[in-house]
Amino acid sequence: MQHRRLTSSGNVIGERRGKTTDDKMADVVSVGVNLDAFSHAISGIQALRSSVSRVFESLKDGMKNRQTLEGREKQFIAAFQDNLQAVNRDLNELERLSGLVGRPSESHPLHNSGLLSLDPVQDKTPLYSQLLQAYKWSNKLQYHAGLASSLLNQQSLKRSANQMGASAKRRPKVQPSTLVLPPQYVDDVISRIDRMFPDMSIELFRPNGTSAVLLVTLGKVLKAIVVMRSLFIDRTLVRAFNENVYDRDGKLDIWSKSQHQVFQKVTDHATTALLHYQLPQMPDVVVRSFMTWLRSYLKLFQSPCQRCGRFLQDGLPPTWRDFRTLEAFHDTCRM
Asked: Each residue of 83-101: pLDDT tens digit?
């Protein structure tokens, strides 16, 4: 029997019988696993996943495309039993292959932390798995903290009591450069977006200086009021095509809600879209993406739900549009 002594990092430093450097490297590289059986085990896992997916597919489809109720029940039960037998067969094959894979070697590249996985009472003291989980969360926390720091620096939200004194009055207010864009640049971006979509017309207003308000008319379906701060969208309001968008003074009414429940739902979804499309470094891309998403409502009353296949649910058409595929869903079917 060979005896080896390990350092605190888990490296072999000596043996009772002398070995060359190549022999020691061979011990480290050797994994002690039957690679052929391991490959077959991976194929067995894929087969098991496929058979389980067929079981859930049969449950999802249910009894359909049959003439009589009795025929539908028999066909459904027979197909369901065949799928369950396939799952049982694939599971037994995977258990058989797992016994042929073998055990990995005791050489761990994680130094001292790698030795925690050798604890014989892993269920009672799962230190190794907890350490890996903490490491993942630490990396994720560091990544999100870096994003939050960059966004806060761009928005310039630092405030203190010293700025309220006399020195703050003499100090000029510095605005972040990413939020201050020339009006000519904003007009050029909006005009390019207007030319991209022939079935969507965009009118630009500047009621209060440099701030822009867009009146978006989408075919003969709806009108949307988009309030912007430079190229950043603050809020949006959707009304029906035949609803009045002006107040008594002839100005755009950016506060009154639509009288129709369907457009109130679309307004709520548009507010959610504003939170989804966020890219402070490229605000023109955000505006173009939001307008592309808003244009998907051109067939608001003509597109069926992609899940249930119906046009109406509780008297409302599918008002939700997926942010990536722009497919139509009812508000409850998208969950």
From this structure: 889 999 988 888 888 878 7
How is residue 334 written in tokens? 């998208």
3-state secondary structure the chain: CCCEEECCCCCEEEECCCCCHHHHHHHHHCCCCCHHHHHHHHHHHHHHHHHHHHHHHHHHHCCCCCCCHHHHHHHHHHHHHHHHHHHHHHHHHHHHHHHHHCCCCCCCCCHHHHHHHHCCCCCCCCHHHHHHHHHHHHHHHHHHHHHHHHHHHHHCCCCCHHHHCHHHHHCCCCCCCCCCCCHHHHHHHHHHHHHHCCCEEEEEECCCCCCEEEEEEECCCEEEEEEEECCEEEEEEEEECCCCCECCCCCECCCCCCCCHHHHHHHHHHHHHHHHCCCCCCHHHHHHHHHHHHHHHHHCCCCCCCCCCCCCECCECCCEECCCCCCEECCCCCC
pTM, rounded to two decimals: 0.48
- Contact between residue 5 and residue 13 where contact means Cβ atoms under 8 Å apart: yes
| Range from 39-48, 125-134, 226-235, 261-270 carrying the lowest mean pLDDT | 125-134
The more confidently predicted of residues 30 and 84 is: 84
